[in-house]
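[09:14] KT: can someone run the structure on this one? pasting the chain below
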Amino acid sequence: MRFILFSVFIFLNTLVVTAQTVQQRLDSLFQSLNQDGELSGAFLVADSGKVVFEKYLGFQDASKTERITSNSRFELASVSKQFTAMAIMQLEEQGKLSYEDDIIKYFPHLKFKNVRVKNLLRHTSGIPDFFSFPEKWIDTKKINTNQNLLRIIETKMDSTSFKPGDQHVYSNINYMLLALIVEKASGQSFAKYMHQHIFKPVGMNNTTVFSARSPNVDLRNYAHGMAFDVKTNSFKNVDDIAIYKYAKYFDAVSGPYGISSTAQDLFKWNQAIQNNILLKQNNFLRAISADRLNNRKLIQKGDWYYGFGWVFKDSTDNKDKMHFHDGEYSGYKNIIVRDFAHQKCIIVLMNKWNTIDVLPLTFAIDAILKKRKTPAIEREKLTGAITLVESQIKQLLGTYEYTKQPDLKFKITADDSGNLFAQLSGQAAIEVYPKNNLELFYTAIQAMLKFSKENDEVSTLTLYQNGQELTFNKVK
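[09:31] RB: done, structure tokens below
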């Protein structure tokens, strides 16, 4: 009897030590990542349905007056898409819409043909992203809403980029239109619907559809987006950095982003899905199921499949599979990862770009939960830009074609002040900064451009991003 009791005592102590070890390892991970004190965000980890770790680091803006706390609200960026998808799924469950509905039913003035609600959900519509719109289409002096963007695509766009269902191309317009469909199918504003049917039932008291730059908004406990400014070698609020000006004039858009929340509220959201509070389980499983393009190939980007606002690697109808969605927008880097089988959840909300990426961080956290070796995470090296002379700038300017896909082009331009910009086909021009006379780096994304010469003339450009190298030949 003494032996049995002693064994039980040892077993219980082992459980405690193991739990402490996991927490200590997670704490050590964040200490190692925050040696320069520049990590800023809210981090929550749950295992077996219970929170095992929370960490709040950094400040709510560049003035460093208010620290990040459990009450700090973050712009969710594209993590918002899963909430928009949930609203659509609820309305489908109630019979108020169908995934097969042609969107002309809701937007009779659109000129697109055969775009269905399911195409919007899975990014197979062929409607280009509004971030690629020519700036002349947009009133950049005001804060634009979904209705403003709807009027643009009604008057400026005649067709989709490809036949709906032929390809998977991520576009924020898809989820902007879904938010408008929520309004038309429910008879409520998107903000009111989300509050009444999702946030309130779940107890997400610090979560709202939110535009931080609209007049008279309450910015208490709001974590502003920040980014590293290479011209001053310091972090600034994104509103004080010219390349992020879009954050203001697109700030009232909601659906693809535009929801603000806290780490603790996102854990409530996780539990609500787990417990089928908002939707019947079989209907939610549609969100994490794989579907097919018109050619019967699975809707896939790289190794990942795209559902209804969720991304996953397992194409089978496995209700326990891991799924996630990340988000990046104007200073924010976020992710929520859910593992049904082990009731694990990893939530990362960061309001400072140019520090670390969220996917490697979640891989490291997951390894610790599984008591495996922690993989290394690379921190971005924050460096200032050098100044190029006019002749050095001119040799970089021009149009470059991708060797394997000539219609994919890079255009390098400069303004009157010598600031350099890189524009990939279908995307907006983004400012880039010289590391030396043949290397340019981004701050808005983690990427590098390297130029090569032939006969003392620049002949190629190579894009380095996400472990990939794409080479473009200079054509003019």
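[09:33] KT: thanks! The radius of gyration is 24 Å.
[09:34] RB: yep, looked fine to me
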